[in-house]
Write a structure and sequence with these properties.
Four copies of one chain form a homotetramer. Chain A is α/β, with parallel strands linked by helices. Chain A contains twelve helices and eight strands. In chain A, strand 6, helix 7 and strand 7 form a beta-alpha-beta unit. The model of chain A has no long low-confidence stretch (mean pLDDT 95). The interface between C and D is medium-sized, with 34 and 34 residues. Chains A, B, C, D: This is Dihydrodipicolinate synthase family protein.
Chain lengths: 299, 299, 299, 299
């Protein structure tokens, strides 16, 4: 088993729905294929972008199986299995492992603010039931809980919790992870507008939905930093930052779906209560994409 | 139909679990009975206190039916039916109406931050499918979205959205609701430490889990304000404030369960990842309860 | 010496400037007289409303002397003597005592965030140099430091620190002060929109600039609470709340000056960089005052 | 006149006091000389580090003159002239220009939250009275006002406002400045823990008190980024980050004075209410410095 199977750009697919708001698995596989062939270094279904919390258990399982089949080992897969209860999290983690996932991502969802001990016990309970590695994910904006660096350190003591994804948007957290936990800890950036700063701070990878729209720019940024080419990295980053900020500000599922439409790709429907971007927001996105790609879009 | 069926103290039962973390319906009914006979003016199952989001659909339905049967019309019932997706919210709202609930409470749960338009459409979709009144519930700490007074005003334009529950903890919100929406809008306080200030500001009722532990003090506070007896209200409030702050700070399900145990009542188990209070926290709670009731507790 | 010389409505005069932005002492005395004769229970020059930090030492001394002379013992006076350095704070505190002030108010101004020990030493150093009582003032929005209830408790151990003014806008702070420090601690509310809730929570007084514009409503609210007439207090509060919120939102010196002009009184000029309200803001204020007083204003 | 006279490391001296808390100009010049000879690219007296707001007008003028004389043109000087009132800010800006400063730094100090229009008028009034360039400084933590990127854009339209110093600690602000205002806008980082990320984002310089303690590491980091040597920059940054975080967390004047003492240099006294670090804090600082310099310190 590879304990840290990811580096570079880890792409997050959306979960598309049909006109009756049912999951469209066929379209999902098509969108997944685009991510693989356009150079992403890993694939992460059932993340925030994939509206994990809005799906039924059966839908999550279908997405998981479709991902493993479609990716077919070309790049490693990271399956989101987060759930409010420990029991359900275990259920989905085991399902992902059995289906062939390379790793699972777990965010400590919380309705009631969890204590540090509850969070550790939660990860521990899941970790004891599977053998594949776990990426612990900190994103206070969606989970409602902000795991302190000290807590992340505790989680890393659990044998198969081997990776940290930080989406709090604070570059100091990454400085801390690198400084306190040593060069060998694998941490990943989940905050799109921090892409450059995080790679420079030593992040192993970038967890992002952006490859649905601008895969080359994402991968080129990673390569520029790898090649120690700071000037090029800076230019590549400033070329894509407006898009990175836009998709975060508008909500990834809404923004990616609208962007796919602009690029001439079918992104399916959203599930209520989520609604499409307004026409003004779509126009703004079209302009950002036009500036980046130097193309004029009709739709 | 009574469009505003609640006033006074609306009590929130916990959802107790057995040692296998299954819902214990028998114990739930027993705890419910305590709330009714101790003078609460309304009963609200499946709230935050009742760990709604940690339950399966079947468990929610069982709790709903058990509540209607046990309360048996002695006081009005307010059933929580919130869900991340609109479809599921409609499902549970219809179930509650069919089961005989007097009203439903809906908080706009959000993983992805919802826009105002999405929230309005969400309530509108549910409201159009049921006939009983809806209490719209604002609690940024648990839902992740803070509904502005302007948005609450829009929600009140939906015919059967007739009540607002405010738990943001800011007394100015209640001043705004009373001032802007007029004396006829029914607003309820969901922030325990604001109990006195909210009643004085004109709140119709107090949504609280405290009657599980100190029902008389809760009801007496309401009566003192009703009787224009400010000095007594102040004394009653200061007598219970430490408990009100404690149960909020520690998380209502954890704190109520621990408090029931101290009072010699069985509160069942919690569902993971939630864990019991530490023994130090329980001792602190025991001291608070002893000071209030002037009794010494063994457990 | 009266250790707690204040209760009820403590009025804050503005410091008016002439067209060259020099302090206009003649006009200041005129505005002060209005506050005394309209029923305020105390007068507090050189507060935030009086733009204390924008004045030179000489100007502060002139204001202090003018206040004592004009008020002439009719009501007690509370002189603001806060300064960034301990040495200057002592200087002004001694000046106020010599001039005949009944008490001084001190907020721990801070450019560099002060530690609790630094704040205690600061108050202690001043207190040891004067005999009149000190009101410790907590207002994070203007001072940049939020004194915790625990720190306020420490300050109250200094013999002549006998009063607390709380302007953090959080009613829970007042609950804490009353609950933890006992019924004998004198605490005052400095947050205008909390006026009703604070009196109900047991505040001894209300420190406010509002009597420059609506003295009767302010005093009537206090009296209603004193008379245990909750319904009347509620009505009086809701009648004035829009004004209370407006003057806080726009900045007290700007708003009071504009309000005086609307009422036909000369409020003088502001000192740069402070500028008058925009004409749209003034219109808004005129409408609020018209609604309250049932009069039409020309200016 | 050079409109953008600074790049690289701009060093901030502390203002030392004698045992009577009077400014010690002789010691100040000695500390200044250390900064110049150790390679700093610019010198900025009367900043936050130099406790500007705690000084009298005469003291500020003495510091200004001493700086110009001691630096003697070896590197450019940036004199802090911020004041609450516009009139005083103009006074000190003119004094600095006459004394020979290369530029002045102005932060919009505010007791009353200033409107955007008031801030623009404040800078405009000062700018019209001097010919040397102005660095506009954004630091919400000390000034109490957070200038939005849009406001900073407006300030840059004033002819001699040619530089921006950003200390809000948010790397996105620098991305915005570079992206929206173009490559030609000179922006400087004032947040020590952002040193690496800010240089990578394109900052022209780093405004910092750290050269009082570790001048070589500061300058080497700048040079590494200039030389496009990302790996070296990362190593140099992680070597100094603990010190950078410590001096910010403890307050620059307190921490620099303690650090100088550890290094065997006299940093003088602080002015009350500021007090020295506790002995425990000093020990922590000694350990950080020992780790960085690989030396053992006695004091």
């Amino acid at each position: 088993m590879n304990k840290v199977p990811f580096k570079g750009v880890i792409a997050y697919p959306i979960t598309p729905f049909d006109k009756d708001e049912k999951v469209d698995i066929y379209l999902f596989r098509k969108l997944l294929e685009r991510l693989v062939v356009s150079g992403s270094h890993g694939i992460a279904p059932l993340g925030s972008t994939g509206v994990l919390p809005y799906l039924t258990d059966e839908e999550k399982e279908a997405i998981t199986e479709a991902t493993i089949q479609q990716v077919a080992g070309r790049v490693p897969t990271l399956v989101g299995v987060s759930n409010l209860t420990t029991e359900k999290t275990i259920h989905h983690a085991k399902f992902a492992e059995n289906a062939g996932a390379d790793a699972v991502m777990i965010i400590p969802m919380s309705y009631w603010q969890l204590t540090d001990d509850e969070i550790v016990a939660h990860y521990d309970a899941v970790a004891s039931k599977i053998s594949i590695p776990i990426m612990a994910y900190n994103n206070p904006a969606t989970s409602g809980v902000d795991m302190s660096p000290a807590l992340l350190k505790r989680l890393l003591e659990i044998p198969n919790v081997t990776m940290i994804k930080e989406s709090s948007g604070d570059i100091q957290r990454m400085h801390y992870l690198r400084k306190e936990l040593g060069e060998n800890v694998a941490f990943y950036n989940g905050s799109n507008p921090l892409a450059l700063a995080a790679f420079v701070a030593g992040a192993n990878g970038w967890c992002t939905a952006a490859p649905n729209l601008i895969p080359e720019l994402n991968v080129d940024l990673y390569n520029a930093v790898q090649n120690n080419d700071l000037e090029n990295a800076q230019n590549l980053f400033y070329k894509q930052i407006d898009l990175l900020k836009f998709i975060v500000a508008k909500g990834l599922p809404r923004a990616i779906k609208a962007g796919l439409h602009i690029l001439g790709e079918d992104g399916g429907q959203l599930r209520s209560p989520l609604k499409p971007l307004s026409s003004q927001e779509s126009s703004e996105l079209k302009e950002i994409l036009s500036t980046i790609t130097d193309k004029v879009y009709q739709s």
